[in-house]
Amino acid sequence: MVDSAFPIDVPVSEVFPVSLSERSRSALYLGLSGVVGNEEAVEEMLSYFPARDVEESVTKEHLRAEFTVFRAEVQAEFAAVRSDMASEFAAVRGEMASEFAAVRAEIRQELQAEIGAVDAKLDGLSAEMHAGFRRQMAWSLSSMMATCTVLLAAFALLT
Predict the structure, then answer these.
(1) CA separation for the pair 15, 4 (Å, rounded)
(2) I need a surface site. Which of 19, 35, 100, 101 has the fewest CB within 10 A?
(3) Residue of 11, 46, 6, 39 whose CA lies nearest to 25
(4) What CA–CA distance (Å, rounded) separates 27 from 49?
(5) What CA–CA distance (Å, rounded) separates 4 from 120?
(6) Cβ(50)–Cβ(13) below 8 Å
(7) pLDDT tens, 98-139?
(8) HEC profile for the chain?
(9) What's the pTM?
(10) pLDDT in tens, 4-44
(11) Cα–chain-centroid distance for residue 119?
């Protein structure tokens, strides 16, 4: 019967994370090799227990030193990332500035072309209006002269 507290597919090292000293590993290996009779099986079993090279516990000074090294590494990485980002942003800003300058030049050129076309249309309209005003003025003058002539003839007949 399988005990539900010990799942079959989970390694023993994940359930019981126990590290062994070299002396303990050696004693277990020698003792179990004689009992089991298969050295490979004993090595496989012992592989689930990580080896510990140092017999002493971690001190505060050791932790502080490790954290200091880690902090320095992290700060160096962040500084490198900031530097990379700054150079990349500078490159993007440069690209954007040149693109905006090209767009401004293109818009300026198109506006100048449109303004030239509007000027040409206005010049044509102005010439057309001048010609119309001349025709209207000539018609008005000839109408007035004809009216004056009719009035003079009517006055001459009456007198």
Answers:
(1) 13
(2) 35
(3) 46
(4) 14
(5) 94
(6) yes
(7) 999 999 999 999 999 999 999 999 999 999 999 999 999 999
(8) CCCCCCCCCCCHHHHCCCCEEHHHHHHHHHHHHHHHCCHHHHHHHHCCCCEECCCCCCCHHHHHHHHHHHHHHHHHHHHHHHHHHHHHHHHHHHHHHHHHHHHHHHHHHHHHHHHHHHHHHHHHHHHHHHHHHHHHHHHHHHHHHHHHHHHHHHHHHHC
(9) 0.39
(10) 454 455 454 444 445 667 777 778 788 878 887 888 888 88
(11) 44
- Find the length of the chain: 159
* Helices 22-36/39-46 angle, 10° precision: 140
> What's the CA gap between 55 and 21, in Å, rounded?
7
Q: Copy the structure tokens of residue 120.
A: 């040409």
